[in-house]
């Protein structure tokens, strides 16, 4: 097979064969742009190289020498000819852009004789010897792996000895002296063809550097892909004052404005612009000094953007007044810019709405919803944990919920730092600007609640050791963060920083709303929110939720004035005593539900029956028990006795979920009465409530039947008195492996099902949700798992259970509605999977609703 392609022999569709860089150079050549000519050695040649024990195929050199002859003709210069020398750049380039591989070698083809020839030909010895010393330096560093610092060190030494500080003060003779020194440091090959061969081998070898390997692992790039080698004629921006180098963007990469934007340095090589040693000029300066070059550049950028139909990042060089294009690629951009560019390109007729949707990543969307730590300003990172809830926040460190409330009341922004959080910390979490925990994974209490509130959070930050008594958190390196210190959290990355790090404020934009409206038009999956309070529900609605997919009723009982009633109910010793408290709870629950139905007028609200183990509501220590005893008029000893009776060795697998309904049907009945009576009242006030009652954590069909009877009892009790028809539904959750394996039987008893993938993942893996934060980071680091299964759905096993459940359920009950309300419902990759599974909706925290809308559209288009 052909192993070498000239730039006019390929196109942008040849990425796999020629690498991204090579394919782009071919494309630009065929567009008629002034690209310095060259050739590409294919990626299959890289595979051949490895298969034959790191040896170039025997006929390769012959083949590239033929190509090289043609490049010489095109460029009017000759490789290895001191009279009229042609120099090359040599680069690596895989099908996907891959940092970690070999950097570029520039000016390849120079030696003592040719450098002298170049000096003579150009009449610019300083330029010739500067190029030569740069080449030796790069070649030694990148190809011979001789280490780059020693060369810089020699230059520093030389400058110091000769009273010079700047490169511009170095004469041709100075550089010649430097070259003589360099040659004592490395065994540099003088033969240009040997240089070229060594560089090609080095490019292939760089496929296997540890950095490249890690990058491929992280990004699922196959090992077998291999890299191409691009060999391109050099042009020089540092030839003199009518030469220069620049980079440009076809639109502003930071704001997205459709405005050509770039920087240029006269008499400088491309790397000088990137290195930022001298301050570049705006490209508009070219308009003044070299108008015809500017004209050509401007036309070229417009052509390239139109051709690639995306914002381009270009590199160009001017040599003696002649314009050359070196590279074009899709430009990196901020979240705001990405949305603006996508929307405007649709208006300009450049791309379709579907294409615009695919151009925006979920991370891009976050910038519109949360203040973000400015990446350019990030410093003082002292610890890194799990990125549990996105956004950035700065505040004073507090170590308890009480302290959080107190310090916040004084008008300070606070960061609540806890080993872990429990429902009792809610009041502190509500006032916190950010939450940081030492323990807990991505579905821990802290993570779930923070995401629900849209507050930035980092969990599982095991690099911090928290000492409540001392009021300190100590990092692995020994930095001590004290109570009252100012810290900044980057919940998007998981980084904890000392001090106040600047942030970019969130704010929506018309373009963002336009993009979301396109997403709604294109998606099939519905998007609901997990929310309990009217405030959260209103936020969810504003962000585009089409219903509530999970209202965790237990959250409604943690409010200060209710928790004692809840506790008294749990601690009741007789049915009558319990009923009294249940009646009080019924009032609370009714009022909450009514408020929720009003906000979600005309939209479904899935209300889940009480789920957590009851001891989660009870006090944990003597002081709290004594205080509670006073408040509810029950002896502390009795409280202790009952609390101890409810304690469990393994609460997550214990007395919770629908098991509570089995043992305490009266609690369930109360909840149902509250839901239905609230719906009746809402209807009477002219609203359209659509309650859906959801039974959690079932394992078999008899549970559903038993609990359905209790639910019916509750409903009848309400409707007997009020003659209103309430359109309710009864459904269940798929949270245990056993439920998914018998889904067909369960499906015939209910109207909807919702995957509780937090519990389903916990039980499929046998990884405790609340403790997994202790070992998941190690699992990731040691590559035992690809990603945290509590963040992104494990499609292989958990996904397989889901698929079986959906297929069997639908076979038995074709009209059943299927959703997901675990944390995965807001994860773009998992949303794609749910779309493919054919679910009807996903439900996620309010602040993830926009991301889910876009992800659902991306899954479809
Ligand atoms: C789940 O298990 O996925 C779920 C949504 O319920 P919870 O997180 O409340 O256990
Ligand atoms: Mg659950």
Automatic annotation (TrEMBL):
Residues 509-860 form the PEP-utilising enzyme C-terminal domain. Substrate binds at residues 552, 608, 735, 756-759. It comes from the Bacteria. GO terms for molecular function: ATP binding; kinase activity; metal ion binding; pyruvate, phosphate dikinase activity. Keywords: ATP-binding, Kinase, Magnesium, Metal-binding, Nucleotide-binding, Pyruvate, Transferase. Mg(2+) binds at residues 735, 759. Residues 413-494 form the PEP-utilising enzyme mobile domain. InterPro entries: ATP_grasp_subdomain_1, PEP-util_enz_mobile_dom, PEP_util_AS, PEP_util_C, PEP_util_CS, Phosphohistidine_dom_sf, PPDK_AMP/ATP-bd, Pyruvate_phosphate_dikinase. Residues 16-60, 66-280, 294-348 form the Pyruvate phosphate dikinase AMP/ATP-binding domain. It is an enzyme of class 2 (transferase). Its EC number is 2.7.9.1. PROSITE patterns: PEP_ENZYMES_2, PEP_ENZYMES_PHOS_SITE. The active site is at 445 (tele-phosphohistidine intermediate), 821 (proton donor). Its cofactor is Mg(2+). Belongs to the PEP-utilizing enzyme family. Catalyzes the reversible phosphorylation of pyruvate and phosphate. This is Pyruvate, phosphate dikinase. It comes from Sediminihaliea albiluteola. The lineage of its organism: Bacteria, Pseudomonadati, Pseudomonadota, Gammaproteobacteria, Cellvibrionales.
């Amino acid at each position: 097979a052909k192993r070498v392609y000239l730039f006019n022999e390929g196109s942008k569709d040849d990425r796999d064969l020629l690498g991204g860089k090579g394919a782009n150079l071919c494309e630009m050549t065929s567009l008629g742009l002034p690209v310095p000519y060259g050739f590409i050695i294919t990626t299959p040649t890289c595979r051949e190289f490895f298969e034959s024990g790191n040896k170039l195929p025997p006929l390769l050199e012959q083949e590239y020498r033929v190509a090289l002859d043609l490049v010489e003709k095109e460029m009017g210069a000759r490789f290895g000819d001191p009279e009229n020398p042609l120099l090359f750049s040599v680069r690596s380039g895989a099908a996907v852009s891959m940092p970690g591989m070999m950097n570029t070698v520039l000016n390849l083809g120079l030696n003592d004789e040719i450098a002298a020839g170049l000096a003579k030909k150009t009449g610019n010895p300083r330029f010739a010897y500067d190029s030569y010393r740069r080449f030796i330096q790069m070649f030694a560093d990148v190809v011979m792996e001789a280490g780059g610092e020693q060369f810089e060190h020699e230059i520093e030494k030389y400058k110091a000895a000769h009273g010079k500080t700047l490169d511009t003060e170095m004469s041709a003779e100075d550089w010649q002296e430097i070259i003589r020194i360099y040659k004592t440091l490395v065994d540099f090959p003088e033969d240009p063809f040997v240089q070229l061969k060594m560089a090609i081998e080095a490019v292939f070898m760089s496929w296997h550097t540890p950095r490249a390997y890690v990058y491929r692992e992280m990004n699922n790039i196959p090992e077998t892909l291999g890299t191409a080698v691009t060999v391109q004629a050099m042009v020089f921006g540092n030839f003199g004052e009518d030469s220069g180098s620049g980079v440009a963007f076809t639109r502003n990469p930071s704001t997205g404005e459709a405005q050509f934007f770039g920087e240029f340095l006269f008499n400088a090589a491309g790397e000088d612009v990137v290195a930022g040693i001298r301050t570049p000029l705006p490209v508009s300066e070219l308009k003044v000094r070299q108008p015809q070059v500017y004209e050509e550049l401007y036309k070229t950028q417009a052509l390239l953007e139109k051709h690639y139909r995306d914002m381009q990042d270009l590199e160009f060089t001017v040599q003696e007044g002649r314009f050359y294009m070196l590279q074009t690629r899709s430009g990196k951009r901020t979240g705001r810019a990405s949305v603006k560019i996508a929307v405007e390109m649709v208006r300009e007729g450049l791309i379709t709405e579907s294409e615009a949707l695919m151009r925006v990543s979920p991370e891009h969307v976050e910038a519109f919803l949360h203040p973000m730590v400015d990446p350019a300003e990030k410093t003082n990172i002292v610890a890194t944990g799990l990125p549990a809830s996105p956004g950035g926040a700065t505040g004073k460190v507090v170590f308890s919920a009480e302290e959080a409330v107190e310090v916040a009341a004084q008008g300070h922004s606070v960061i609540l730092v806890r080993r872990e959080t429990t429902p009792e910390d809610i009041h502190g979490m509500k006032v916190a600007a950010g939450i940081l925990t030492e323990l807990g994974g991505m579905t821990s209490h802290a993570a779930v609640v923070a995401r629900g509130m849209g507050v930035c959070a980092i969990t599982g930050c095991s690099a911090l050791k928290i000492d409540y008594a001392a009021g300190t958190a100590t990092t692995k390196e020994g930095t001590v963060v004290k109570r009252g210190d100012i810290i900044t959290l980057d919940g998007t990355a998981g980084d904890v920083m000392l001090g106040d790090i600047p942030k970019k404020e969130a704010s929506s934009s018309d373009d963002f709303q336009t993009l979301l409206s396109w997403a709604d038009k294109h998606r099939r999956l519905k998007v609901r929110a997990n929310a309990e309070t009217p405030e959260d529900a209103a936020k969810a609605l504003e962000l585009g939720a089409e219903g509530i997919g999970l209202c965790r009723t237990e959250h409604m009982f943690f409010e200060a004035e209710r928790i004692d009633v809840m506790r008294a109910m749990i601690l009741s010793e007789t049915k009558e005593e319990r009923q009294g408290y249940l009646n009080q709870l019924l009032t609370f629950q009714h009022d909450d539900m009514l408020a929720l139905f009003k906000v979600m007028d005309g939209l479904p609200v899935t209300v889940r029956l009480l789920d957590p183990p009851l001891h989660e509501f009870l006090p944990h220590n003597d002081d709290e028990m004594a205080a509670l005893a006073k408040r509810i008029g029950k002896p502390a000893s009795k409280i202790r006795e009952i609390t101890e009776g409810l304690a469990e060795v393994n609460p997550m697998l214990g007395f919770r979920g629908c098991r509570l309904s089995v043992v305490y049907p009266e609690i369930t009945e109360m909840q149902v009465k509250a839901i239905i009576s609230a719906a009746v009242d809402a209807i009477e006030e002219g609203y359209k409530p659509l309650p859906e009652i959801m039974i959690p954590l079932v394992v078999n069909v008899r549970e559903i039947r038993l609990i359905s009877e209790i639910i019916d009892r509750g409903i009848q009790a309400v409707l007997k008195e009020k003659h209103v028809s309430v359109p309710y539904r009864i459904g269940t959750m798929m949270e245990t492996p056993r439920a998914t394996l018998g889904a067909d039987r369960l499906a015939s008893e209910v109207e909807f099902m919702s995957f509780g993938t937090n519990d389903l993942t916990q039980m499929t893996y046998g990884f405790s949700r609340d403790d997994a934060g202790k070992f998941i980071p190690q699992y990731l680091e040691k590559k035992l798992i690809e990603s945290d299964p509590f963040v992104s759905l494990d499609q292989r096993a958990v996904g397989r259970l889901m698929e079986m459940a959906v297929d069997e359920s639908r076979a038995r009950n074709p009209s059943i509605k299927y959703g997901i309300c675990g944390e995965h419902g807001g994860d773009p990759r998992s949303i794609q999977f749910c779309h493919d599974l054919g679910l009807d909706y996903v439900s996620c925290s309010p602040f993830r609703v926009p991301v889910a809308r876009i992800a659902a559209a991306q899954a479809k288009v």
